[in-house]
Design a protein that fits this description.
Elements: H1 7-17, E1 24-28, H2 35-48, E2 53-57, H3 67-73, H4 75-79, E3 84-88, H5 97-104, E4 113-118, H6 124-128, E5 136-140, H7 146-156, H8 160-170, H9 174-186, H10 198-208, H11 215-226, H12 232-238, H13 243-251, E6 256-259, E7 262-265, H14 267-280, H15 282-302, H16 308-317, E8 337-341, H17 347-358, H18 360-372, E9 377-382, E10 388-397, H19 402-407, H20 409-421, E11 429-437, H21 446-461, E12 465-473, H22 477-485, E13 490-491, E14 497-498, E15 501-509, H23 515-528, H24 546-558, H25 563-567, H26 575-578, H27 585-599, H28 607-618, H29 624-631, H30 635-659
Parallel strand pairs: 1-4, 1-5, 2-3, 3-4, 11-12
Antiparallel strand pairs: 6-7, 8-9, 9-10, 10-11, 12-15, 13-15, 14-15
Helix pairs in contact: 1-2, 7-9, 8-9, 10-14, 11-13, 11-14, 12-13, 12-15, 14-15, 15-16, 16-21, 17-18, 24-30, 27-28, 28-29, 28-30, 29-30
Organism: Nonomuraea marmarensis
GO molecular function: ATP binding
Protein name: ATP-binding protein
Length: 669
């Protein structure tokens, strides 16, 4: 097999070989990354230079490596100043690292060269010792670059139609490329649909990961593979026992890297672990996913404003195999662009960017809303240069005056659609997302990812939001289908215009499909796979006006003893019942009504209402006259108590419908 790439590593080795560099090279990287191939190339280069070469393989010194055995294997380099010693698989004899550094290497004559290669990086004590400052060169071995990966596939005879799926799976990981290529070439009909079979997955896992200490360690590694970044906090949410110990173990693995956000595995290891668990234990995979998903969804709801983007990105990463447009791979440290809250002094910049992006008419809308809702705007800059490249706005609207209706056709269209469909109820608002991005940054770009994450964060964190509208200028069909299928949004038929441009408005009714149901829908699509389709989505909720809601409560009270009648009530499709997950809707509605009646006893002023409702609806009294007689009340007094009690139940349940079932019960003053 041809040797490809590694020009930088070869340059460092040759500099040392010919006396212009260090005396010890320490090469480290995950399994299968090409350390042994590189050492064989080093041996070839040394032989060409006429220098004697000896090689020690850590695997050959097991099971009980000792300094004496290692020194015997490496004896040549101690007596020949021209010798080159290559030590492979050093992780197998890692316990000798201190002896090597303190006892063996100081005895190597000047001019000799030692190369150590293993999975683990060198102990920090190498760097802490000033004596090693100029003598040691550490070479972390990474994936092959794109051109080198292509060259490796050339040498393996991989046909053109197989290269894209093979690269998508293996990236630049040499062992994954070679093994995948061998299998893919044999499977002549695979084409663009090629995926590694379970034999490939198992072989690579053995080579890259190896045996794990316990089932808990394997589970921790599977969690690390599934999540975008793994922190001890996330590990504790998905695997409560020994989270601290397991996190410390994870961070020491050679194929797990650290960033400011947490730990993440090498991409190939991630893909292999994911594929293996989904095939081997689909139920366990779903349980793990749900735990991580719940933890990250809660993080989105509770994060500070500046942390929202990262929290949403981590949540959406769980859906990376479900057609998400953003490419998360390789973005382990955000930083190319940064988001800022718009300040007064930035408004001029907003107008310049908006004009360049979409013309004077759109810039006029930006100026109009910046004057009224400055806090709704975000500015996006290139971190390196500070160049402003995009702005977004999240406009919250509970009512519109005449000037606002005429100033912005996009907002006016959203407002008209909401009023014509299911208008806002008391205390509710709608939101309109606006965007101005310079032409090079539109489409599938990192800055658009940030804006998308901000929009999703706004939706998941909003209180009392009825509708959200997202405007997109000239959306392509792929985006339209993605927003419909994966995000449950639909485009309205009317297209508002600004200047010469037509815009498409995508809308979501958050009363019909609340945030939790929306997330569950995405989850179902992920676990079921694309074949699950939109049919796996949570059913839409009924959005009733206050009058319709009250009438439905009155009817349900009269039918409280009939489960079949309650099942037909529109109340079973309201937020009230949706938040009682796991219960039959009709049973849940009956329980809710009985509880609402019982709650009236808590207020001394409403005890008489409770008695009237209890006798009438809970004891199934045949007639109201008999109910009044059982209570010992004049019929007119009974009717007054009954009517007032029904109104109180309606008001209490309406309050919970608007604010959630955990909200304090409504009490009139």
């Amino acid at each position: 097999m041809a040797f490809v790439g590694r020009e930088e590593e070869l340059a460092v080795f040759n500099a040392a070989l010919y006396g212009g560099g260090c005396s010890v090279l320490y090469v480290h990287g995950p399994g299968g990354i090409g350390k042994s191939a590189l050492l064989r190339r080093f041996a070839h280069e040394a032989a060409v230079a006429g220098r004697p070469v000896s090689m020690v393989d850590g695997r050959m010194l097991e099971p009980s490596p000792s300094p004496a055995a290692s020194e015997a294997e490496a004896e040549l380099v101690l007596r020949d100043a021209d010798a080159v010693l290559l030590v492979d698989n050093f992780e197998r004899i890692q316990g000798l690292e201190g002896w090597l550094r303190e006892r063996f290497l100081p005895r190597v004559p000047m001019g000799a060269l030692v190369v150590i290669a293993g999975r683990n990086p060198p102990d920090m004590r190498w760097q802490a010792d000033p004596g090693w400052a100029g003598a040691l060169e550490v070479l972390p071995l990474r994936d092959l670059r794109a051109g080198d990966a292509q060259a490796l596939m050339d040498s393996s005879g991989v046909p053109a139609e197989l290269r894209e799926p093979l690269l998508a799976f293996a990236g630049g990981h040499p062992l994954a490329l070679l093994l995948g290529a061998a299998v893919a070439v044999k499977d002549g009909g695979a084409g663009r649909r090629w995926m590694p079979n379970q034999d490939v997955v198992a072989t690579l896992l053995d080579q890259l990961v190896g045996e794990l200490p316990s089932a808990a360690h394997r589970h921790a590694l599977e969690i690390c593979a599934h999540a975008y970044m793994t922190t001890e906090d996330l590990l504790r949410a998905a695997l409560p026992e020994d989270a601290g110990t397991l996190f410390r173990w994870l961070r020491r693995l050679p194929f797990v890297e650290s960033s400011s956000l947490g730990l993440f595995p090498h991409d190939v290891v991630r893909e292999l672990l994911e594929a293996d668990l989904r095939w081997r234990d689909p139920e366990g995979y779903a349980v793990m996913h749900d735990r991580i998903h719940a933890h990250l969804a809660e993080r989105v709801r509770t994060a500070s404003d500046v942390d929202v983007l990262g929290a949403v990105a981590a949540l959406l990463y769980l859906h990376r195999d479900n057609g998400a447009p953003a490419d998360f791979h390789g973005r382990h440290d955000e930083g190319e662009f940064q988001e800022e809250v718009l300040r007064e002094e930035d408004v001029g910049t907003l107008l310049r960017v908006a004009t360049a992006a979409e013309g004077a008419a759109s810039a006029g809308c930006a100026a109009f809303w910046a004057e009224r809702q400055l806090e709704a705007f975000r500015l996006y800059r290139r971190t390196e240069t500070g160049e402003p490249v995009a702005f977004s706005a999240w406009l919250r609207l509970a009512e519109l005056d005449e000037e606002e209706l005429t100033a912005d056709p996009i907002v006016a269209m959203a407002w008209a659609h909401a009023r014509a469909t299911t208008p806002l109820r008391a205390g509710e608002h709608l939101a309109v997302s606006r965007l101005w991005a310079l032409p090079p940054y539109r489409g599938n770009s990192p800055v658009m990812d940030l804006i998308q994450w901000r929009v999703i964060g706004n939706c998941l964190r909003a209180e009392r939001m009825a509708w959200s509208y997202i405007e997109i200028r000239h959306p392509n069909q792929a985006w339209v289908e993605h927003l419909r299928r994966h995000y449950g949004m639909r485009d309205i038929s009317e297209q508002p215009r600004l200047g010469d441009d037509a815009y498409t408005l995508f809308v979501h009714d958050w009363r019909a499909v609340p945030a939790q149901a929306w997330l569950e829908r995405m989850n179902q699509l992920l676990v079921a796979g694309p074949a699950g389709g939109p049919s796996a989505a949570t059913a839409k909720l009924a959005v009733l006006s206050q009058a319709e809601f009250a009438e439905a409560v009155r009817k349900a009270l009269r039918q409280l003893s009939r489960l079949d009648a309650l099942a037909a009530s529109p109340l079973t499709r309201t937020r009230l019942i949706a938040e009682r997950a796991g219960q039959n809707p009709a049973t849940a509605l009956g329980d809710l009504l009985r509880q609402a009646i019982d709650d009236l006893r808590e207020d001394p002023r409403s005890v008489k209402f409770h008695r009237a409702l209890s006798v009438t609806f809970l004891r199934s009294t045949p007639t109201q006259e008999l109910a009044a007689e059982r209570l010992g009340l004049p019929f007119t007094t009974y009717r007054r108590h009954l009517t007032a009690g029904i109104e109180r139940v309606c008001a209490d349940l309406w309050h919970r419908e608007l604010y959630g079932t955990n909200a304090p019960a409504y009490r009139s003053t």
